[in-house]
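Morning run. Coffee first, then this:
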Amino acid sequence: MKTKHMSIGVAMADFYGMHRNAWRSKQTDPLAYINIEEQIKYAKISEKGGLDYIFMPDRVFLHSGFTGTINFPIDPIVQLSAIAAHTKHIGLIPTLSTSFNEPYTIARQLRALDLISRGRVGWQVIPSFEPEAFANYGQNVPKSSDKYGRLHEVVHITQSLWGSWKKEAAEPNKKTGVFLNNEYIQPINLKGKYVGSRGPLQAPPSPQGQPILVMPAASHSGIKPAGIYADAIIGMPNTIEESVHLREIFRSAAQEAGRNADDIKFIVFFTFGIGKTHREALNRRREMENSEDFPKLTRHLSMLLGVPISESDIDEPLTANQLSNLRENPQFSKSVQAIQLAKEGYSPLDIIAHGVLDNTPGVIGTAEDIADYLQEWFESDAADSFALAADRLSDGLPDFVDQVIPILQKRGFRPEDYMGNTLRENMNIDYQLGVDPRILNETE
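And here it is:
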């Protein structure tokens, strides 16, 4: 059942922002991706605003000859461990690939982080697919059946390891001299086709039992395991209609696995840029554009509008002839928005500044505009949670915390303070320790 409060977290992929030129802004530290003090600063700002979690995607390779920004953390476990020591409430969700990590290592590292943070950890479960990633581990890209077969075994064994130490093992008793009650600490002795583990783990459960599991909104082979294991699905549908449809796919998958549809929360990436006025927000976004990018931007915009756009006319409204020939492109869900903006008299650069070329849903506007947008998605059952992807983190995140959160609180969509001490409590996800008994018979 949907709660009245929407969950909100922040996506921190590079500590610059979603806009490709955010790192070049004067407000931004270009070394933020390796500056842990800068990262801790953003975490504290997020916690000040009562945000529920920090979401850290990851990628374990760098393209040969790459010269752009580093779009993924240097190591999410290490970074979030440092952040955990400087925060008290916000959740911490790193990404670990099931393709390269052994379940005992995953279970041990995430339990340690969960204990350090007193129950604030999640795990984004992904199988890798990039040839460059497999090459870094001396492997070839496996067949899809092997990739997801390994994912199933890794998750199942990891959760079993988390359940190998029951909370009844209690605390060391100085009076009796009993440090651990071994009746409640048992090996799991699981061996599959791809991975295995004897167990048990070496440390007790956290206050939330075990980390929540977040899985991407993958298609085909990724749907079934998400229905079996995921506490939350994270995706980037561009419209409310797309999101409602996608959310229902995974709710149905959960039911097919013997769970309740409401067991799965749906998280949507959300890009934003804030200004005191709509015009100010657009100008802020325009300032991040660079002329060397105009050829690529106009080509992409031309595909959305169905008419050729010249970079020499990027700051002029479309001509009458262009307006009469606008054609919606069904391959791009933001084509409708781009065409409407063109008809309203915005120039190509202004249309681009509205975020029509972003690969996530979002809004560029005032704090009220952003709150309205989030409210509409939430009330339309399109999302339970939003992973904020500020176009520029250095000023976008503080502005969201200072301006948008109070509006959502006033409207009753955000609590005044954290609702609990653990990530599960703050995201309204039930306590769990070990594999969900409803799906113990699943083998794929």
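The chain is about 35% helix and 10% strand. Good start to the day.
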